[in-house]
């Protein structure tokens, strides 16, 4: 099925995204060595352009979704500018783009602004579409994996546990030869959603061992700091006795920690990270098509990896233009499809949205329409 229509985008929007997206329907939409992403057999295609901006955490996933959609829909052009979550939300609220990607759902004040931006005083929708496990990585010669309870992890990053052979670490790693070596925790130097979610986890799961409020900025004077997940990964890899936190796609060959949950230690995987989303309630007070989550970082559910970052696609429930509504609806339906979620997971190590939640989200995307 093809949806008609065309819209001209401003040069400002186009310049920011051309490095990320390619000409519609072109094989150049794929990076070198990338296989064409799978698409559903009943994929709905549109004609014309769709614009989005926001989270850089979902940049690689968005590249994959754009490539898959454009290769299947030769007359569609999807443009996404990874300018950061805050800037993306601002552009959406100012009607500069059709949808936004964000590491945070719209807050109450932004929801009020969205009613002015969307048609017929309609609300916006927060659609969780990309779940990124946050890995705890370390570089310790001869050690590939560790078990770390949340309290121990918090005391390491709070600089209270300073040696790798500390009894608090050794207790849960009895078969591991831990050296008498200084621990060098590496934190982010820039404000980030990864830090916000990591500190939210520590605050929820570690109790008094982490006496700091959740924040996108590292709350104490760092031992070592680096910009971006790639910067932390490089700093951890180049050091010895280093430990840091990164999005799962940046783990490379570094050691990773299994995290204490209830009475077990859970290793990072797309499946184990997806379970925390399935068990997390939606934020109270929202309308039926709004799906902002209150992540249960303190979960004790078996097999659940609790340190994750969720990024949202933010759209209007009503658009002035029928074509705009149809384009947003068609593309987001692909993003949420089983094929779209698996394509992103194959490239980034993300956790596909659980099937039951995905069905609810697709119902909300299907409700996106035009006013009148």
UniProtKB/TrEMBL annotation:
Pfam families: PBP_like_2 (PF12849). CDD domains: PBP2_PstS. GO terms for cellular component: ATP-binding cassette (ABC) transporter complex. GO terms for molecular function: phosphate ion binding. SUPFAM superfamilies: Periplasmic binding protein-like II. GO terms for biological process: phosphate ion transmembrane transport. Residues 48-339 form the PBP domain. Phosphate binds at residues 55-57, 85, 103, 192-194. Keywords: Phosphate transport, Transport. It comes from the Bacteria. InterPro entries: ABC_phos-bd_PstS, PBP_domain, Phosphate-bind_PstS. Belongs to the PstS family. This is Phosphate-binding protein. It comes from Streptomonospora litoralis. The gene is pstS2.
């Amino acid at each position: 099925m093809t949806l008609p229509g065309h819209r001209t985008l401003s040069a400002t929007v186009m310049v920011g995204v051309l490095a990320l997206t390619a000409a519609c329907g072109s094989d150049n939409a794929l990076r070198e060595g990338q296989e064409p992403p799978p698409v559903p057999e009943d994929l709905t295609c549109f004609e014309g352009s769709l614009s989005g901006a926001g989270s850089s955490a979902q940049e690689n996933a968005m590249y994959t979704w754009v490539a898959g959609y454009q290769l299947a829909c030769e007359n569609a052009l999807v443009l996404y500018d990874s300018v950061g979550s805050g800037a993306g939300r601002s552009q959406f609220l100012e009607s500069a783009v059709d949808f936004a990607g964000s590491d945070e759902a719209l807050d109450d004040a932004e929801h009020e602004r969205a009613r002015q931006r969307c048609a017929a005083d309609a609300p916006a929708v927060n659609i969780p579409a990309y779940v990124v496990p946050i890995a705890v990585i370390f570089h310790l010669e001869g050690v590939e994996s560790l078990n770390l309870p949340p309290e121990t992890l918090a005391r390491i990053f709070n600089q209270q546990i300073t040696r790798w052979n500390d009894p608090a670490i050794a207790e849960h790693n009895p078969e591991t030869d831990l050296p008498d070596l200084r621990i060098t925790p590496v934190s982010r130097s820039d404000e980030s959603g990864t830090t916000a979610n990591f500190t939210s986890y520590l605050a929820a799961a570690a109790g008094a061992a982490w006496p700091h409020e959740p924040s996108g900025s590292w709350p104490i004077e760092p031992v070592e700091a680096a910009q971006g997940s790639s910067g932390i990964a490089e700093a951890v890899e180049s050091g010895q006795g280093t430990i840091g936190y990164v999005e799962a796609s940046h783990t490379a060959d570094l050691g990773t920690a299994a995290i204490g949950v209830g009475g077990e230690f859970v290793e990072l995987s797309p499946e184990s990270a997806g379970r925390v989303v399935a068990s997390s309630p939606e934020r109270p007070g929202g309308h039926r098509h709004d799906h902002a989550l209150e992540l249960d970082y303190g979960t004790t559910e078996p097999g659940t990896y609790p340190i994750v970052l969720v990024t949202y696609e933010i759209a209007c429930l009503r658009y002035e233009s029928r074509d705009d509504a149809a384009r947003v609806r068609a593309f987001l339906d692909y993003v949420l499809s089983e094929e779209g979620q698996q394509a992103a997971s194959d490239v980034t190590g993300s956790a596909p949205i659980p099937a039951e939640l995905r069905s609810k989200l697709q119902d909300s995307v299907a409700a996106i329409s035009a006013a009148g």
